[in-house]
Amino acid sequence: MNKRTRRTVIAGNWKMNMTPDQAKKAIEDLRPLVKGKGRCDIVLCVPAIDIPAAVKAAKGSRIKIGAENVHFEPKGAYTGEISADMLVSSGVEYVIVGHSERRQYFGETDETVNKRVKAALNAGLKVILCVGEVLAQRDLGITKEVLSMQTKIALSGVTEDQLKNLIIAYEPVWAIGTGRVATPDQADEGNGFVRAAVAELYGKKAAEALTVQYGGSMNEKNAAELLARVNVDGGLIGGASLVAEKFAAIVDAAQ
Ligand code: PEP
Fold this sequence. Notes:
By secondary structure, the chain is α/β, with parallel strands linked by helices. It has helices spanning about 20-35, 50-60, 85-90, 100-105, 110-120, 135-140, 145-155, 185-200, 205-210, 225, 245-255; strands at about 10-15, 40-45, 65, 95, 125-130, 165-170, 210-215, 235.
């Protein structure tokens, strides 16, 4: 298994943007732009309130719908939370887990990320697990250690068979929403560190088969160069996923 045979996945993260009506319109605008037999998978991770409208608007197209988070308990007194089964029964196929904004603003830890990964995989969702170093860690020269630790804790208790439903997004925190994109070398190296950590857990073959995305200010201008790198199997895209033409251009760059 190598870059040519690994699945390329271009995923958008809408964050807290778009009302249901806007979501419907955005997907209707995107559909004709990504029509056809492309070689990459296309996912839009949308706010929970937009899920019904997004699933309906994407029906019959290449676009799969994802959520931006999931709770780890199956049900109960967790006001404001959404379970994996609720997502599955709403037509959601993917879910982002461990995004740096969840870690930074909502107290997400490596341990709760691990619980969410397991709950989502056990429910049959495909998980986009986010890992990434903050600038101070990069400056200290500990990026490899940080990525290895985050990856290993997040995957604790995940079986090798479940890796087929797992994507890891390497997202250097200093590159998210800042316009400061990692260089292709930095992206390739970070993705390689993630793959090496997976190899330590499951062996080289399993790690080589895993889709590892890059995320952090990827856009229609820099995507081709980033996606050409041997360890970069797709992108997780925030800002540029909100504009149909920009997102479609990134999909084009991937195929
Ligand atoms: C993200 O939200 O995961 C992300 C990479 O955002 P942006 O593309 O805006 O940097």
